[in-house]
Specification:
- The complex is a heterodimer.
- Chain A has helices spanning about 10-35, 35-55, 60-80, 85-110, 115-120, 130-150, 150-160, 160-165, 170-190, 195-210, 215-240, 245-265.
- Chain A starts with 7 loop residues before the first helix and ends in a 6-residue tail after the last helix.
- Chain A contains 12 helices and no strands.
- The longest helix of chain B has 14 residues, at about 110-120.
- Chain B is globular.
- Chain B has 7 helices and 9 strands, in the order βββαββααααβαβββα.
- Classes of the chains: A mainly alpha, B alpha/beta.
Chain lengths: ~270, ~250
C-alpha cells in the first residue's frame, strides 16, 4: 500500500474518489428522494454527446459533458409533460441521442484519442492535479451551499407545493439541484463511467436512507458510504488489478444486498 | 371587517397539460366564511383550491388574494399522500418546515420549538413529536399535516379531504379546532362528505368542471343532482342519525 501511494496517479485517483464520493453521495440523496434516478441516467448519457462534440472540436471533454448534461437538464426542467410527450419519453430520447452523437463524433475525431470504454466505464487513473483542484473547489462550494440552504432544500425535497406557500423560491432550488446533478455526473463519469454512474448515485443514498433517522444524517451517511465505496473499490481494483469502475459498483451492490439481508433477519425494515 | 373579501376567483379556466379541469369558475371567500367544496372525483375540487392558493396559474380569468402576501399566510393541508418512502423526518422537524422564518433562519431555535410544541398540542400529537413520519399511522400523519399548516398562524386555511384516514376522535377534535379557527380566519374544506362539517359549514361550492355556489350553506337534492349528474339522496345534514340499531336491541 505504501508503495502504491508513492505513485502520483494512485494518490490522484484516491483523492478523486474522495471528491466524487462526497458529491455523488450528497446529490444522489436528493436524486433518490425526489425520484430523479431515470432523469439522472438520461443526463449521464446525454453528457456523452457533449464529450464527443468537445473531443471532435479539440476542447476539454469534461466541460462538454457538463454543458451537455446541463442543457439536457434545462430542457427537462422546462418540459411540460401534458403538452406533448411524457417526460420519460423525452428522457429516453435525450439518453439515446446523447449516446449516438457521442459515438458518432468520437468515430469522426481524427487522431488516436481515448477509446469508448474510457467514457463508458471511467478512467480514474487518468485524473491530473488541475482536475483535483477544480474538483476540490466545486466540492467545497456544494457543501457550503447545502449547509447554508439545508432547510429550504429539505422543504422542497419533501413537498414543493407547500414550500412555495412558505415563500421558498422552489424553481430556483430545482434548477440549483439540476446544476449540482450535472456537476456530480462529470465527477462520477471520470470515476465509474456513463454505464455505471447510476449505481453511485443510488446505492449510497439507499443505504443511508435505510438507516438514518434524520435527513441531515442521511446526507452525511450517504456521502460517507459513497467515499468508502469509491476508495474501497479502488483499493480492491489496485490490489487485484481489476477495472476500477465496475469493481466499485459491484462492491456497492454486494453491500446493498448484505444490508438488505441483515435488515430482514433483524426485522429492522424500512421501505427504502 | 366581517365581509372583507380575502379571495376572489373570477372566470377562471384551468387544467393540466391539454386537459381543461375547471371552466369559468367564479367564487368569493370573505372573512368569517367556512366554505365546503364538494363534488365528484375528478370534478376539479383540488384544482380549484390549487388555483386559489396560487399553485396553479389560471389559463383564463383571475384569482385575487387580499392581505395574503405574507409567506405562510395561506395554510394548506394537502390530500394525504403515501407515507412510504418519505425522507427520514421527525414530526417536529416536518412541522417546523411550515414556518417561513425557520426556513430562512430568521428566528431562534427556541421560538421554532415553542411554536411547534404548541401547535402539536392543539392537534393532540405532542407525544409523537420525536417520531419518524414513516412510523406514523394514517390519522397521525393527517394530524401532522394539519399542524404543519397551522404552525405559521395562517390568515386563511385550506384543507383537502382532511377526514381521510382519521379516527372518530380526531374528527371531533378537527371540527372543534376548525370552528375555533373560523372565529378569526376563513376556512375552505374540500370533502366528499360534508356530514362531519354540517354544523360549521356556512357556504357550499359544488364543483364538477364548473362551480355552483350556495352562499347559505344548505344543499337540496336538486342542486346536488345538477352537480353529480344523477339523483342524489340527502341522508344527513347536521342531524345525528343512526343506521344500525343500538347494541343489545333486536332488529
Amino acid at each position: 500500500m505504501t508503495e502504491l501511494l508513492q505513485h502520483s496517479f494512485a494518490v490522484h485517483a484516491l483523492l478523486a474518489a474522495l471528491l466524487a464520493g462526497i458529491v455523488g453521495g450528497l446529490v444522489g440523496t436528493f436524486v433518490v428522494v425526489k425520484r430523479l434516478v431515470f432523469l439522472a441516467g438520461g443526463l449521464s448519457h446525454a453528457a456523452f454527446g457533449g464529450v464527443g462534440l468537445f473531443l471532435f472540436l479539440g476542447a476539454d471533454p469534461r466541460v462538454g459533458a457538463f454543458l451537455a448534461a446541463l442543457a439536457a437538464a434545462l430542457i427537462l426542467a422546462r418540459w411540460e409533460p401534458g403538452r406533448g410527450a411524457g417526460d420519460d419519453v423525452v428522457i429516453g430520447i435525450l439518453w439515446a441521442a446523447g449516446m449516438a452523437l457521442g459515438a458518432f463524433l468520437l468515430a469522426l475525431t481524427p487522431g488516436y484519442g481515448p477509446g469508448l470504454g474510457t467514457y463508458l466505464f471511467g478512467n480514474i487513473l487518468g485524473v491530473g492535479r488541475e482536475e483535483l483542484v477544480v474538483g476540490g473547489v466545486v466540492t467545497v462550494v456544494l457543501v457550503v451551499l447545502l449547509v447554508r440552504y439545508y432547510r429550504p432544500l429539505l422543504a422542497v425535497a419533501f413537498d414543493e407545493d407547500f414550500a412555495r406557500l412558505q415563500g421558498v423560491p422552489v424553481d430556483r432550488y430545482r434548477y440549483g439541484l439540476l446544476v449540482a446533478l450535472a456537476l456530480a455526473l462529470v465527477f462520477l463519469l471520470q470515476l465509474v463511467g456513463i454505464v455505471l454512474v447510476l449505481a453511485l448515485l443510488t446505492i449510497p443514498p439507499l443505504l443511508a436512507l435505510r438507516f438514518a433517522s434524520r435527513f441531515a444524517v442521511a446526507l452525511a451517511l450517504s456521502a460517507l458510504v459513497a467515499v468508502l465505496l469509491a476508495e474501497g473499490g479502488l483499493l480492491v481494483s489496485f490490489a487485484w488489478d481489476l477495472p476500477a469502475g465496475p469493481t466499485i459498483v459491484l462492491v456497492g451492490v454486494l453491500l446493498l444486498a448484505m444490508t438488505a439481508g441483515v435488515s430482514r433477519l433483524t426485522g429492522r425494515h424500512r421501505s427504502w | 371587517m366581517a365581509d372583507e373579501i380575502r379571495i376572489r376567483v373570477d372566470g377562471v379556466t384551468v387544467g393540466y397539460g391539454r386537459d381543461t379541469v375547471l371552466e369559468d369558475a367564479s367564487l368569493i371567500v370573505r372573512d368569517g366564511d367556512f366554505l365546503g367544496i364538494i363534488g365528484p372525483n375528478g370534478g376539479g375540487k383540488t384544482t380549484l383550491i390549487k388555483a386559489m392558493l396560487g399553485l396553479l396559474e389560471p389559463w383564463r380569468g383571475t384569482v385575487e388574494r387580499r392581505k395574503l402576501e405574507r409567506p405562510g399566510a395561506m395554510g394548506y393541508v394537502p390530500q394525504l399522500g403515501p407515507l412510504e418512502q418519505q425522507p427520514p423526518l421527525r414530526v417536529e422537524e416536518l412541522v417546523a418546515l411550515g414556518r417561513p422564518r425557520y426556513l430562512s433562519r430568521r428566528e431562534s431555535r427556541e421560538v421554532t420549538r415553542d411554536a411547534v410544541r404548541t401547535t402539536l398540542e392543539r392537534v393532540g400529537l405532542q407525544e409523537r413529536s420525536g417520531t419518524l413520519v414513516a412510523d406514523l399511522s394514517g390519522g397521525q400523519w393527517q394530524r401532522t399535516l394539519v399542524a404543519r399548516a397551522l404552525v405559521a398562524e395562517p390568515e386563511i386555511l385550506f384543507l383537502d379531504e382532511p377526514m381521510a384516514a382519521v379516527d372518530a376522535e380526531f374528527r371531533r377534535v378537527l371540527v372543534e379546532l376548525l370552528q375555533e379557527l373560523n372565529r378569526r380566519i376563513p376556512v375552505v374544506v374540500v370533502t366528499h362528505d360534508l356530514t362531519p362539517f354540517a354544523q360549521v359549514v356556512r357556504q357550499i361550492a359544488c364543483v364538477n368542471r364548473a362551480v355552483h355556489y350556495h352562499p347559505e350553506g344548505k344543499l337540496t337534492p336538486e342542486s346536488l343532482e345538477e352537480v353529480y349528474g344523477c339523483p342524489v339522496e340527502l341522508i344527513s345534514h347536521g342531524v345525528p342519525h343512526r343506521v344500525l340499531p343500538p347494541h343489545g336491541e333486536g332488529p
